[in-house]
Design a protein that fits this description.
Number of helices: 5
Oligomer: single chain
Strand content: 15-25%
CATH topology: Aminopeptidase
Strand order of the largest sheet: 1-2-3-4-5
CATH superfamily: Gcn5-related N-acetyltransferase (GNAT)
Helix content: 25-40%
Structural class: alpha+beta
Largest sheet: 5 strands, mixed
Length: about 160
């Protein structure tokens, strides 16, 4: 049976946290997010993300971005996870399609952006098949929490 894709709310924070923990495990990355912080973020006056759930088979977590180079708003897909048993069924494509529709309706998103781990050739091949492409001349940079805190104290 094809799982229904639906928008997650604060009441879904436990299921969302469990799926994100499975994604972290699949990637061999530490998992630092819990259900309480997810629910609190989703209850914020301006939630920093939206999320879709496909039962226990998959999820997508995404946020608005804006690019003057691209010419408008987009959606940054920070997390996309499909359970091993559901891979190859089209669920990943369906989740990203739902992200595109929701982000367009919510903030006029024209494009999707994401990062893919170099150690995930299957994921990279999936994104390539959908038409995602590297951005020539750009590298993704991150300022970690401690450095961001230091920078925020700069006047």
């Amino acid at each position: 049976m094809t799982p229904e894709i639906r928008l997650a709310g604060p009441e879904d924070a436990g299921a969302l946290a469990a799926g994100l923990a499975r994604l972290s495990a699949d990637l061999g990355e530490p998992h630092r997010m819990d259900a309480t912080r997810l629910a609190d973020a989703m209850r914020a006056p301006l939630p920093p993300f939206r999320a879709l759930l496909a039962g226990e088979a998959g999820l997508a977590l995404y946020s608005p971005v804006f690019s003057t180079v691209t010419g408008g708003a987009g959606a940054w897909v920070s997390d996309l996870w499909v359970a091993p048993a559901a891979r190859g069924t089209g669920l990943g494509r369906r989740l990203l399609g739902a992200v595109a529709r929701d982000a367009a309706a919510q903030w006029g998103a024209l494009y999707l952006a994401l990062a893919v781990y170099e150690t995930s050739p299957g994921a990279r091949a999936f994104y390539d098949r959908l038409g995602f492409a590297p951005v020539e001349g750009q590298a993704r940079l991150t300022l970690g929490p401690e450095a961001t805190a230091r920078l925020s104290r700069t006047e």
